[in-house]
Amino acid sequence: MRREIQGAGASAIPALIMVVVARYFSAADRGKIFGLLTSTVSFAM
Q1: Mean pLDDT by 10 residues, the chain (45 residues)
Q2: Which of 26, 35, 37, 41 is most solvent-facing, going by the fewest CB within 10 Å?
Q3: Which ranges carry the Major facilitator superfamily (MFS) profile domain (predicted)?
Q4: What is the rounded distance in angstroms from the CA atom of residue 45 to the CA atom of residue 28?
Q5: Which distant-in-sequence residues (6+ apart) come within 8 Å of 44 by Cβ?
Q6: Distance between CA 4 and CA 43 in Å, rounded?
Q7: Separation between Cα atoms, residue 25 and residue 33, nearest integer Å
Q8: In contact, 37 and 17? CB cutoff 8 Å
């Protein structure tokens, strides 16, 4: 049961990061921030 909760929490983090960027950054900066996030994730994998 604990691993399921851990997996659910870990899967929510990327979605929440995208929501935060879409909500709190201006439209002009969103592309740059999304690019930075996706490149960081791809380097981490």
Answers
A1: 88 88 93 92 80
A2: 26
A3: 1-45
A4: 28
A5: none
A6: 26
A7: 8
A8: yes
